[in-house]
């Protein structure tokens, strides 16, 4: 996935004001497994997430001050970046920070990408040593992202990656196909589809998408090697 680079330009006084403003949002309760609390949160238009991201990546979050773009920048800076900038960050327990980020912005690509890797460190779900009953499961958070932004192909692609990593290849194909239907065109998506179809034994489909991925310059040769071994290449 892409790495997002931040070049925020905010004076110290504005940082303090942002921190005070964020206090208004820190009482978001953790969702139960059905994610009802997340779905009821209507403060932001999550279908415009790409607009917020564009403003953040520009290095100059857009007005109005304390608006959605500024809040996205602050939430990620406070709750994600400290762990991502630490080489051992994903080995640490930062469940509350990750959950908070996804409760504020359920379809935050950066957070969803981190969620996939973080959960894999704990068997596919959040670490929950205290058996907290209200701890949401990971798929629930992806389902919420889909419901909040149903026409966002990146969310679908990430959900497909999550399903693939958990061995649910049929569900992975369903999500990758939906990402494609929603307009995403990339060598990575073609490769993911090809690999998923290979996993379910549909080698003709796997070959079709592999050829598309490699025609677009995809660098990894794992799928091609699998197809060669299965005598489905070229």
Structure description:
The chain is an all-alpha fold and 234 residues long. It has 13 helices and no strands. It has a single domain (12-229), classed as Tetratricopeptide repeat domain (Serine Threonine Protein Phosphatase 5, Tetratricopeptide repeat). Helices cover 57% and strands 0% of the residues. Helix 9 (153-165) runs antiparallel to helix 10 (169-181). The longest helix is centred in the C-terminal third of the chain and has 13 residues, at 153-165. The chain is elongated. The two termini are 28 Å apart. The relative contact order is 0.09. Keywords: Signal. InterPro entries: TPR-like_helical_dom_sf.
The H-level CATH homologous superfamily, spelled out, is Tetratricopeptide repeat domain
Please describe the biggest sheet, giving its number of strands, its sense, and whether it closes into a barrel.
none
Q: State the total count of DSSP E strands.
A: 0
- Domain count: 1
CATH architecture: Alpha Horseshoe
Signal peptide: 1-31
Keywords: Signal
Summarize the structure.
This protein is mainly alpha-helical and 234 residues long. The chain has helices at 12-22, 36-40, 49-57, 68-79, 81-84, 95-104, 109-120, 138-148, 153-165, 169-181, 187-199, 203-215, 222-229. The two termini are 28 Å apart.
Q: Layout of SSEs?
A:
Elements: H1 12-22, H2 36-40, H3 49-57, H4 68-79, H5 81-84, H6 95-104, H7 109-120, H8 138-148, H9 153-165, H10 169-181, H11 187-199, H12 203-215, H13 222-229
Helix pairs in contact: 3-4, 4-6, 7-9, 8-9, 9-10, 10-11, 11-12
């Amino acid at each position: 996935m892409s790495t997002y680079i931040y070049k925020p330009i905010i004076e110290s006084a504005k940082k303090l004001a942002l921190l005070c403003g964020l206090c208004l949002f820190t009482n978001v309760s953790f969702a139960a497994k059905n994610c009802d609390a997340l779905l009821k949160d209507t403060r932001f238009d999550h279908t415009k997430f790409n607009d917020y991201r564009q403003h953040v990546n520009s290095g100059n979050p857009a007005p109005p001050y304390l608006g959605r773009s500024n809040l996205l920048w602050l939430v990620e800076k406070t709750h994600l970046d400290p762990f991502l900038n630490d080489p051992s960050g994903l080995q640490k327990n930062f469940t509350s920070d990750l959950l908070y980020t996804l409760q504020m912005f359920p379809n935050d690509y950066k957070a969803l990408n981190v969620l996939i890797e973080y959960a894999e460190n704990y068997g596919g779900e959040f670490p929950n040593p205290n058996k907290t009953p209200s701890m949401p499961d990971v798929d629930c958070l992806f389902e919420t992202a889909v419901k909040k932004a149903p026409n966002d192909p990146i969310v679908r692609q990430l959900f497909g990656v999550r399903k693939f990593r958990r061995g649910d290849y049929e569900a992975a194909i369903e999500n990758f196909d939906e990402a494609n239907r929603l307009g995403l065109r990339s060598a990575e998506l073609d490769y993911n589809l090809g690999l998923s179809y290979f996993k379910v034994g549909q080698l003709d489909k796997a070959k079709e998408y592999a050829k598309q991925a490699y025609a677009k310059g995809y660098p990894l040769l794992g799928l091609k090697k699998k197809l060669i071994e299965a005598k489905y290449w070229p």
